[in-house]
Amino acid sequence: MSSAPRIAIVGAGPGGLVCARVLQNHRVPVTVFEREADLAARSQGGSLDIRADTGQVALRAAGLFEEFLALARPEGQEMRLMDRHATLLHHHLPRPDDVAAPEIDRGRLRALLLDSLTPGTVRWGRAARAAAPLPDGRARLELADGTVEDFDLVVGADGAWSRIRPAVSGARPAYGDIDFVEIHFADADERHPAIADLVGNGSLFANAGRRSLIAQRDGDGGIRVYAAFRSPLGWNADLDLGDSDAVRARLLDVYEGFDDSLLALLRLNEGPFVSRPLYVLPVPHTWERVPGITLLGDAAHLMPPVGVGANLAMLDGAELAQAVIAHPTIDAALNAYESVMLPRSADQAKAAADILAVLVPDTDSTEASFPDDLTGS
């Protein structure tokens, strides 16, 4: 590209930050607009497995792979699959040198990426309202405070409910018939040793019929649990989610027939239950080329949470930045990027839906069922 374009990335998640980092490594100016006030504005969520063929490729492109390895937890790749009776069906123990998909807390990964950027790159507390193409091939970004700025490229990296997506697509996320109720145990080894022993250093999956219990170790020693079950939207409309006793009673009814050691994941929670309904975009989600605007990550391909989303978002970000660097115009860069990203994301979304359909089956069978992606078979 003969002169450096002016680029805006909306959203300071892993995908947007990788994109900004790769651009800055090649001296391409970029500004990231983030609605949150700062990194500590909210909980950053649980642990991510960063995979060799996607997320790690992106971190290598960003020049951050070694720094990532220093923070990652290879032992977090441990996996235990159980039936509802807590019978261990499959147990994966990673080798100490196994870095196929080591775990890292989302907050640590985001901090690593933020620290790698030029100070001032991220404009905190600047929420986007909309974007629109301009007749000259550029794009106009409107912020929530009424500010308007024009850029050669606006990248929507702003997640499931993207404010940039409507500029390229009329698609909206739809409820996927599954709710994930989140439960957190802090300092599990000290406060809940039985649960810590049950889960181990990585992840635990136990399912039967339309219900699955998923537990995952965080880097700080806490354990995050998700009670995932098929349900209509609003199953908890008659409940106050702040009333833990009432929510617990409902969940124990849903998970009737599970072993007491597994039901402890529901009985012993310390904080409130958090409902996280599953939303997904249509598959495939595509759009006609819009000058000066594109999407990455969940904004482009929101799919079930089976360990794919963050990895694809980072790969999207790295490849978009590389396309901008390698091509003479933004339009040529977007054609190159979208021609790869859109079909890949459709394939991955289909695969993620298939995994979820086995992990939380739409049947009433009481037998455990797990996808080959989890068992390694």
Can you describe this structure?
There is one protein chain. The protein is globular. It has 2 domains: 7-77 and 97-172 and 281-359, FAD/NAD(P)-binding domain (3-Layer(bba) Sandwich); 176-278, D-Amino Acid Oxidase, Chain A, domain 2 (2-Layer Sandwich). Helix 1 packs parallel to helix 10 (309-326). The strands form 4 sheets. It has a 7-stranded mixed sheet, covered by helices on one side. Strands 7-2-1-11-17 form a 5-stranded parallel sheet, with helices on one face. By secondary structure, it is α/β, with parallel strands linked by helices. It contains 12 helices and 17 strands.
What's the helix and strand layout?
Layout lengths: L6 E4 L3 H12 L4 E5 L12 E3 L5 H7 L3 H7 L7 E4 L5 E5 L10 E3 H10 L6 E3 L3 E6 L5 E5 L4 E4 L1 E4 L17 E12 L2 H4 L1 H7 L3 E6 L2 E7 L5 E8 L13 H11 L5 H8 L6 E7 L12 E3 L2 H4 L7 H18 L3 H30 L12 H4 L2
Parallel strand pairs: 1-2, 1-11, 2-7, 4-13, 11-17
Antiparallel strand pairs: 3-6, 4-5, 8-9, 9-10, 12-15, 12-16, 13-14, 14-15
Catalytic activity: a tetracycline + NADPH + O2 + H(+) = an 11a-hydroxytetracycline + NADP(+) + H2O
Subunit structure: Monomer.
EC number: 1.14.13.-
